[in-house]
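User: I'm writing a tutorial on reading structure tokens. Could you give me a worked example: one chain, its sequence, then its tokens, then a sentence or two explaining what the tokens reveal?
Assistant: Sure. Here is the example chain.
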Amino acid sequence: MKVFISSLISGMEAERAIVKHSIEMLGHQAVMAEDFGARASSPQVACLSGLRESDLVVLLLGPRYGAKQTSGLSATHEEFKEAQNRKPILTFVEDRDAEADQAALIQEASGWEQGLYRASFATPQELGDKVARALHNHELANAAAPLNPEGLRTRALELLPNMRRDASTATFQLAVAAGPSQPVLRPAEMEAQPLTDALEQRALFGPPPLFNRTLGTSRRFDNGALVIEQEGRYGEGARIALWPTGDILVQLPIDRASRGMGFPTIIQEDIAALLAGSLSFVAWLLSHIDSTERLTHVALATRVIGGSMYGWRTEREHAASPNSGSIMMFGQEAERDAAVMLSPDYMVRQALTMNAARIVEDLIVLLRRKWARN
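And here are its predicted structure tokens:
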């Protein structure tokens, strides 16, 4: 395994040396700026390239922030930003008063609350011991199976159920495949009442609530998945499905009752709210069933299905002309109903919490392209 060491170089030579020793003692390869040698690219590009080629990042945060690059961030801060969406991060913070900018970076890194690991240290020796222990625990947690990105993508799409296309109602769906592929729940745990109670409580009361509190819920098992659902008033109802592997499906009806008497319309901000709430629920549920983070990556697939009579508008567009709209041309239903995915198709699990706003923004753009152009 390639392990990238991210920190200031000047003033942290002893810490970097002992971390390198800990990494190599466990049989891994330490990737460090000091070892890059002469390259055609700038040191900044070389470091970011080395990070991208690594499997894991050890982030060392001392009291100093370091010189700012053209981006306005220090080199270490840039490396953290680069790793945030793509790599597991082991963060180690020195027990010393930090400069203002460094304190903000420490707070940002510490706020990666679904992160793999965070610890403090007072001496280089203590740091070396904690790095070795964290790397060993990471190996154990990921020993069950290798990550298969293509398999994650395929599973996410396969989680989306076949359903009847209804011209007069629309349904939102988010499928999340988790990996490396492995069972994290035993059959007895799947059937335990506390799991059902926790799912229902979170779905009904949030934050934010996904289900309608005025409707009852029911539980059933379908092809190994625990399904909590509500009947729909006009079409497909709300549903949450959880598989023993940690795969999750969230399905929610799209309510247009408050949109007046004009053309049936999907409001972009409504879908964004459903997507944000669903991501929050998925992050909570993964933490609930897999607190030690054996599942490290996820792939997302989402779609708005049905509603062939519907148009797509923002709140502002609808308010400006509430009694007008557009209807999809015949034959375009399949194109609209197809799921959208981000590129790359998979991400580290922590992104569900720390980068939720960006994920929502990008997925909404992809959905709008499909709906607004028809």
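What the tokens reveal: The radius of gyration is 23 Å. The first strand starts at residue 2 and ends at 6.
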